[in-house]
Description:
The structure holds three protein chains of three kinds.
Chain A: H1 14-39, H2 41-72, H3 75-88, H4 91-102, H5 105-108, H6 114-117, H7 121-126, H8 132-162, H9 168-193, H10 206-229, H11 235-238, H12 241-272, H13 278-284, H14 289-309, H15 311-315, H16 317-339, H17 352-374, H18 386-391
Helix pairs in contact in A: 1-2, 1-17, 2-3, 2-4, 2-8, 2-9, 2-10, 2-16, 2-17, 3-8, 3-17, 4-8, 8-9, 9-10, 10-12, 10-16, 12-14, 12-16, 14-16
Chain B: E1 5-12, H1 15-27, E2 33-36, H2 42-47, H3 55-81, H4 94-121, E3 144-149, H5 157-166, E4 171-176
Antiparallel strand pairs in B: 1-3, 1-4, 2-3
Chain C: H1 24-28, H2 40-52, H3 58-84, H4 99-110, H5 112-123, H6 130-154, H7 180-213, H8 217-227, H9 234-267, H10 279-305, H11 314-344, H12 348-359, H13 363-375, H14 383-386, H15 389-416, H16 431-454, H17 460-465
Helix pairs in contact in C: 3-16, 4-6, 4-10, 4-15, 5-6, 5-9, 5-10, 6-7, 6-16, 7-8, 7-9, 9-10, 10-11, 10-15, 11-12, 12-13, 13-15
Amino acid sequence: MNPGEAYLLPRDSPLEQMATFAGVCGLVGFVVCGAMAVATPAAVAESYLFAFLFWSGIPLGSLAILMLQHITGGAWGAVLRRILEAATRTLPLLAILFLPILFSTGLLFEWARPEVVEHDLVLQHKRAYLNVPFFAFRAVLYFVVWIVLSHFLSEWSRRQDRAPESIGLRLENISRGGLLLFVLTMTFASIDWAMSLEPHWYSTMYGILFIGGQVLSALAFVIPVTAVLAARPPMLEVMTADRFQDLGKLLLAFVMVWAYFSFSQFLIIWSADLPEETPWYLRRLSQGWQWAAIALIILHFMLPFVLLLSRDLKRSRRWLMAVAAVVLAMRAIDLSWLVLPAFDRGGLLWVPSDFAAFLGVGGLWFYYYVRQLRSAPMLPLNDESLPEMRGLQP
Amino acid sequence: MSAGIYGLMAEFSDPSALVSAARKTREAGYVRIDAYTPYPIEELDEAIGIHHTRLPMIALIGGIVGGLAGFGLQYWTSVIDYPINVGGRPLFSWPAFIPVAFECTILGAALSAVFGMLGLNGLPQPYHPVFNVPRFALASRDRFFLCIEAADPNFDADETWSFLSRLQPRQVSQVDE
Amino acid sequence: MADKKPTKGSKQKGAPVSAGAGSRSLSSHLPPVVEPGYTMATVADKISEVVLTQNTPRGWYIGLAFSFALTMLLLVSITWLLVRGVGIWGINVPVAWAFAIINFVWWIGIGHAGTLISAILLLLRQDWRTSINRFAEAMTLFAVACAGLYPLLHMGRPWLAYWLFPYPNTMGMWPQFRSPLVWDVFAVTTYLLVSLMFWYIGLIPDLATLRDRSPSRTGRIVYGLLAMGWRGSARHWHRYEMTYLLLAGLSTPLVVSVHTIVSFDFAVAQVPGWHATVFPPYFVAGAVYAGFAMVVILAIPLRRFYGLQDFVTMRHLDHMARIMLATGLFVAYGYMIETFMAWYSGSVYESSLMNNRFTGPYAILYWSLLLFNVLIPQGLWFARVRSSTTALFMIAISVSIGMWLERFIIVVVSLHRDFLPSSWGMYYPTFWDWSMYLGSIGLFFSLLFLFLRFLPMISIFEMRTLLPESEVKEDLG
C-alpha cells in the first residue's frame, strides 16, 4: 500500500458533495449563459469576464502564495501546500475557459473595435500594444508561464513524497524566479484583461493592486477549505489552533495590504484630480456603485480587520472560516466594482447574466478543483517541518 | 510578620530549577512571590500565577482616542474654525485627513502602551529592597532568583527559610526592607 | 492587537511549536545565529565589554574625530545658511526642491531598516534579528534625525518651524491638512517618537546589566538612572514583553505609512514623474532596500572591528542580502512599470519626461542609477556573492549610491522641465549643497560612534534567549 494513502482526501468529505453540486451548478450556469448570449451577447461577455477574473484570481493567487511559501518556509506553508498546489493545477481549465473572452474582444474592449480606434488618437497610439493578435499572443504566453510553473511545483512536491531526499532547494529556486515571472506576467495580464476595458485610463499601481487582491482571494478561499478538511484526519492532526492563528494573521496582513493599495491609489488620484484619471473613480462612485464602494470599505476592510485583531477568533476554526467567507464574498464585489462600471448598464449594478456566469465558471472550477485535491496526499509527506508539527500532538 | 524584612530570596543557577521551584512554592500556598531573571521566561507566568495583562486594551483605547482626536482636529480646523478653499477641494476632505488620523492612532496607541507598561510596573523606581541583597546584581547576568515576600499570609521567617532551602537553591538570603 | 502573545524569545516558547519559525530551508544549509560555545555570562561579558572597558580602542577615536570634523562642516554650513538664506544652495525656480529633499528622502529611507528589523522580523519570529536589531534601531534614530534637518532648513526660516504644528495661535490660522507636507510632519514626528520608545524600551534590561556590571561609580549612576530601577521581575517581564510586541505590531504599519506619506509628497502633485500611483509601495520597497544596504555597510566593518563574528554571523548577512535582492527587484519593477505607463498613457507630458530621463541633460545619472541600483545588485542571486563580505559590502555601497541617484532623478529631473518650455531650467549643486550632505553623514557617524561606545550595540538579554541553556527543561513529575 502506498504510504500516502492515509493522507488522501476522504471519500466522504463534505467537499465531495459540494463538488458534485458545484458541477451541476456550473453546467446550468453555462447553459443559461449560452441561452442569454443569443439575445444579448455583449452583456453575457461582460458578465463572463467578471466571473473569469474572480475565479481565476484564486488559482493565480495560490500560485503566488505557494512560491512565497517555498521561499520563506514555515509550518503554515506545509499545511497549505497541497491545497494551494491543487488550486494551481486548475490553471489548464482556466486557459480553456479563457477562450470565450478571446473570441469576444470586440464586444468587450473598445480598442478592439476599428470604428472606435479610427476616431481616437490615443487609442491609435496604443495600437502597438492593444491589438487583438498581440493580446492573444500575450494571453497564451501568460498561461504557458503559469501552467509550467504550477506543473513543476506540483510535480517536484509529489516527488518529494516518494523519495525522502530533499528536493526543497530545487523548489525554492524555481519559486524565486517563478515569483518574479509571475508578478511580471500578472501585471500585464491585469492591464490586458481589466485595465484596458477603459483604455484611456492608466495607473501604475494597478498590477500589484490586482495581484494583492488575487492573493487575498486565494487566502480567503483556502482557509475555509482547510477548515472543512480540518474536521477529520489527516488534516485534523496538524491543524492546531496555532496553525489557524498563522492563517488568520496572514489573512489580516493581506486585508491590510489590500486596503493600503486601494486607498493609496484613490488618494493619489483624488488629490491630483486630473481629467484623464478621475473619471475612472467617478464612474465607480456614482449610479449606485458608491454603495458597493461603501460596502467594500466596511466589509472588505473594517469588519475583517477588527475581527482578525482578536487572538481567540483567529484560533477558532469556525470563526476564522466565517471571516474568510465574508472576505471571499467581498472579493467578488470588489472585482465587480473594478470591472463592471466600465460598461454602460444604465444604472444597474448586477444583471442576471452576472450571476449565471459567476455560477457557471465557479461551479466548473470548483468541481475541477476538488478533483485535483483528490489526486495527491493532502500533506507533503517528507516536508521537513511536518514531523515536528505532528510530534506535538498530545 | 517580621519587621524590617521584605522577604526571603533563593538563588538558582538555571532557569529550569527556578521554574520548578516557583511551581513548588505556589503549590505550598505562597501567593506573594516574585521571580527575578536576566531574560523573560514564559513558563514563569503560569508558575507564579501571572494573569493576562490589560496592556493590549490600554493600547487599543489609546489608539482609538488618538485617531479620533487626530481626525477631529482636522475636521474642526478645516471645516469649522478656518475654512479655506484649497484648490477647489471640499472643506471636509476626508481622504486627505486619513494619513494624519492614522499617524495619531499609532502615536496614541504606542504612547499608551509604553507609559501603561511603565505605570503598571511602577517604574521608574529608584529604590527597591531586593537590591539590598549583594548577589542580586547577578540577576541581570546569569542567576535566577525567587523571592517570597514577608507580606505573604503564610510567611514565617524560619519556616519559609527552611522551605526555600529544601528547593535546592545555591543560596538563600534575607531581603532587608 | 489584542492577540499578540509574548513570544519574543522564541526559544523558551518551545522551539518546536514556533509556527512561523520561518527558516525551514534556510536553517539546513546556513550557519547558525550564534556560534556555539557561549554561556549567558560570556555573552553579557563580550557585549558589555565594548562599553565598559576603560581602554577605548584607537580606531574609535580616529573614526569619531573624522566624523566629528564633518559634523563641524555641517554646523558651518547651517550657520552660513542662516546668515545668507537658502540662496547659497543651487536651488532655483523651477528646481525649488533639490538636495534638501533628496537627502531628506534618502536618510528617512535608510531609517526604515531599523524598525523593519525590530518590528516585522519580530512578528515573523525570525530569531536572527536579535543580534542586529539594536544597532539598526540606533541607526534609524540617527538617520531620522539627519533627515529631519533638511525640511526644517529648507523652509528658509527654520526658527518658525513650530508653525507646522497645529496649535491655537494669535494669527487665527491652522495648518492646511490637505497638504502632504503637513502629513509629513505628523508621520516623521510619530516615527521618531515611536522608534525612540521602541529603542529605549529594548535597552532597559541591558542598561540594568550595565548598571550592575559597571566598574565606575559614574557608570553605575548614569546607567542606573537610565535603567529606571529595572530588576527583572517576572511580572515586569510579562508586561514588558507585551509592550514590546505591541510596539512591534504598531511600528510595522507605521514604518510603511511613513515612506508612503513621503511618497505622497510627490505623488499627489500633478508633475509628471511625481504623479504615479505606484509610488507608495515602490518608495517603501526602496526605503527597505536602502536601509538594509546601510545595515550591511555598518555591520560588516563593525563585526570585524569588535570581533563580533560569532554574533553577527554569515547567516545574518545572507538574510539581509536576500531581503535587499527582493526589495531591489521591486524597485526595478517600479522603474519598469513607470516607463511602460509613460508610453501607454499616450500623454505627451509623461512620454517627454521619460525621454528626458533617458536622453536629457541628466541622462548619465539615470543610466548610472540603473547600473548601481538594478544591474550590480543582481549579483545577490548567487550564494557565492552573498557569502563574501567584500562583495556584499561593495553591493551595499552601490545600492546606497543608486538610491540617492533615484531620488535625484525623481526630484530634479521631474522639476527642471516645466510644462512651459519658457520655464525650463537646470540645477547644479553648489559647495554648500555638498557640504550639508557630507556634514549630515558626519553627524550620523558621530552619533553612531557615541552609541557604540556608551550603549550595548547588541541586545544582551535577547542574545541570552538564543542560547541552548536558556531553555526551560520541563520535568512534569
